């Protein structure tokens, strides 16, 4: 029985230590907000923050964010940014900006505007990096990529650069987002979004796999024990 418990614990440890799987998707051209099903969202649309914000409120959830490093510029909507063509948007130059979330999530999204090859997003759980994603490359490699992503969808203009809303859905929780501008130019963004998946009463596929593995181990050991008992010689 001790061996069974040890093997079950080892199987669960293996599952817990498996690398996080993050699925990155892109909304249809012209979309500027999250629309994935199965999540509850909180949005920081940046319309009510001052230049160089140190904190964010994600409206629709109790989650807040604190800027740990980097300086985020806030400006009024123009051809380079501002979801819907109004309000404010953010831009980043130079050092990365890291946002520490008040609680763990498994979804992050943002509208990236006037994109170039230097704009990236990195997701962390505390100090553990889960993945880094160059937005322009992600968009251009997405199955639905087309010419509709070029130019500002709100009023047109800047036809040589890309605009899109990105979704990062993870199978493990994270609590830190880093926005990165590598090299020249700027990183313009809006509608920062965090989300948590709606809880399901059915076990996840990985959980079912662990159950089945456990049942298989128990069954195998019981069969071995029975065979050993049957093989013992009879004594007078």
Q: Could you list some keywords that capture this structure?
A:
236 residues, alpha+beta, eleven-stranded antiparallel beta sheet, globular, disordered N terminus
Brief digest:
The protein is of the alpha+beta class and 236 residues long. It has helices at residues 2-17, 135-141, 205-231; strands at residues 22-26, 39-44, 55-57, 64-69, 72-76, 88-92, 97-115, 119-125, 128-134, 162-181, 187-197. The longest helix has 27 residues, at 205-231.
What does this protein look like?
The chain is an alpha+beta fold and 236 residues long. The chain is 21% helix and 40% strand. The protein has helices at 2-17, 135-141, 205-231; strands at residues 22-26, 39-44, 55-57, 64-69, 72-76, 88-92, 97-115, 119-125, 128-134, 162-181, 187-197. Strands 1, 2, 3, 4, 5, 6, 7, 8, 9, 10 and 11 form an eleven-stranded antiparallel β-sheet that branches. It is globular. It starts with a helix and ends in a 5-residue tail after the last helix. The model is unreliable at 1-17 and 200-218 (pLDDT under 50).
Instruction: Work out the number of β strands.
Output: 11
- Secondary-structure element string: HEEEEEEEEEHEEH
Indicate the overall shape: globular
Low-confidence spans: pLDDT under 50, at least 5 residues?
1-17, 200-218
Number of helices: 3
Summarize model confidence as the mean pLDDT. Answer: 84
Assembly type of the shown chains? single chain
Amino- and carboxy-terminal Cα gap: 31 Å
Q: What share of residues is helical?
A: 10-25%
What structural class results from the helix and strand content?
A: alpha+beta
Strand content: 35-45%
Give the biggest beta sheet: 11 strands, antiparallel
Rg for CA atoms: 24 Å
């Amino acid at each position: 029985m001790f061996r069974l418990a040890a093997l079950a614990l080892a199987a669960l440890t293996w599952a817990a230590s498996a690398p996080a799987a993050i699925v990155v998707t892109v909304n249809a051209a012209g979309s500027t907000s999250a629309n994935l099903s199965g999540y509850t969202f909180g949005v920081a649309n940046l319309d009510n923050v001052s230049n160089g914000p140190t904190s964010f409120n994600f409206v629709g959830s109790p989650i807040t964010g604190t800027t740990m490093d980097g300086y985020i510029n806030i400006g009024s909507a123009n051809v380079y940014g501002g979801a819907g063509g109004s309000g404010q948007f953010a831009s980043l130059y130079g050092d990365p900006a890291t946002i520490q979330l008040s609680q763990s999530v498994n979804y992050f999204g943002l509208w990236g505007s006037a994109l170039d090859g230097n704009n990236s997003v990195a997701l962390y759980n505390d100090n553990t990096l889960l993945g880094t994603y160059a937005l322009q490359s992600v968009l251009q490699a997405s199955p639905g990529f087309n010419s509709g992503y070029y130019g500002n969808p709100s009023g047109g203009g800047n036809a040589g650069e890309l605009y899109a809303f990105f979704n990062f859905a993870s199978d493990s929780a994270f609590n830190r987002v880093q926005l990165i501008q590598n090299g020249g130019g700027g990183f313009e963004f809006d509608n920062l979004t965090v989300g948590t998946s709606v809880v399901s009463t059915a076990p996840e596929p990985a959980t079912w796999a662990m159950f089945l593995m456990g049942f298989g181990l128990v069954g195998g050991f019981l069969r071995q024990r029975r065979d050993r008992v049957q093989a013992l010689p009879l004594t007078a």
